[in-house]
TrEMBL record:
UniProt xrefs under InterPro entries: KR_dom, NAD(P)-bd_dom_sf, SDR_fam
Superkingdom of this protein's organism: Bacteria
Naturally occurring in which organism (per UniProt): Nocardia coubleae
Record protein name field: SDR family oxidoreductase
The family this protein is said to belong to: Belongs to the short-chain dehydrogenases/reductases (SDR) family.
Entry keywords, A to Z: NAD, Oxidoreductase
Domain Ketoreductase: 10-190
Gene Ontology molecular function, alphabetical: oxidoreductase activity
Taxonomic placement: Bacteria, Bacillati, Actinomycetota, Actinomycetes, Mycobacteriales
Pfam families: adh_short_C2
Length: 255
């Protein structure tokens, strides 16, 4: 059973929130009493998620946001503060995967797209979240890296490069903002049952049985397990945790 939190009166901002880990985390924040902004580029899925959450009595806001566009990020964060009056938590989750490819054959446009969303997008989100949080003198940010931010794998240089970069952003900003009352950490998910991973299975880019066997725990993770890690990092229970890249990977990186 997961711990329960009372985030009543507080405000969370989640990117890539229309499905997968983002939706699970936004839902967990809302169930804990927080007002939540959900952002995504999939407007149909976003509206469906928000409609369901409002029907359950949750206080939520939907904002279309491509994190690769800094102006859209700035507008989404500003809309959150205008709607709810503050910003307490942010989970910078939006990201994409790319097919495995020999590093010598990686198209420049693929590298730019992967890093533009997975690294620059996190940078842009954190930048504009911090601009509001530093005025409050409080706040917690969790960035989504990956086991790919801790290890390398053949064929995934661009993706792993971006996810390593997220950890560098997290650690440096954490040191800068800890004295100002703002904690910044990252989670590093393993292979998680999400639409992105399902698409990799369907395309043949990832083998389901091998993916499960690669996890010492013997199974894939769930989006809800990632949400539980994010909420813990945003809770008073982790009040002395600053600048970590927390593996949530079933033991993959412990080997």
């Amino acid at each position: 059973m997961n711990p329960t939190y009372d985030f009543t009166g507080q405000v969370a901002f989640v990117t890539g929130a229309a499905s997968g880990m983002g939706l699970a985390t936004a839902t967990a924040f809302a169930r804990a009493g927080a007002a939540v902004t959900l952002t995504d580029v999939d407007d149909e899925a976003l509206e469906s998620a928000v409609t369901e959450m409002r029907a359950a009595g949750r206080q939520v806001l939907a904002v279309h946001c491509d994190v690769a566009d800094e102006d859209q990020v700035a507008a989404a964060v500003t809309a959150t503060v205008e709607q709810f009056g503050r910003l307490d938590f942010a989970y910078n989750n939006a990201g994409i995967q790319s097919p495995t490819v020999d590093a010598a054959d990686e198209p420049g446009e693929v590298f730019d797209r992967v890093t533009g969303i997975n690294l620059r997008g996190v940078w842009a989100c954190m930048k504009h979240e911090l601009a509001h949080m530093r005025e409050q003198g409080s706040g917690t940010i969790v960035n989504c890296s990956s086991l790919g931010g801790l290890v390398g794998l053949p064929g995934r240089a661009a993706y792993h490069g971006a996810k390593h970069g997220v950890i560098g952003l997290t650690r440096s900003a954490a040191l800068e903002y800890a004295p100002r009352g703002i904690r910044i950490n990252a989670i590093c998910p393993g292979t998680i049952e999400t639409p992105m991973v399902t698409a990799m299975f369907d395309s043949g880019d990832l083998d389901p049985a091998r993916a499960a066997d690669d996890e010492p725990i013997g199974r894939l993770g769930t989006a809800e397990e990632m949400a539980a890690a994010v909420l813990w990092l945003c809770s008073p229970g982790s009040s002395y945790v600053v600048g970590v890249a927390l593996p949530v990977d079933g033991g993959y990186t412990a080997r």
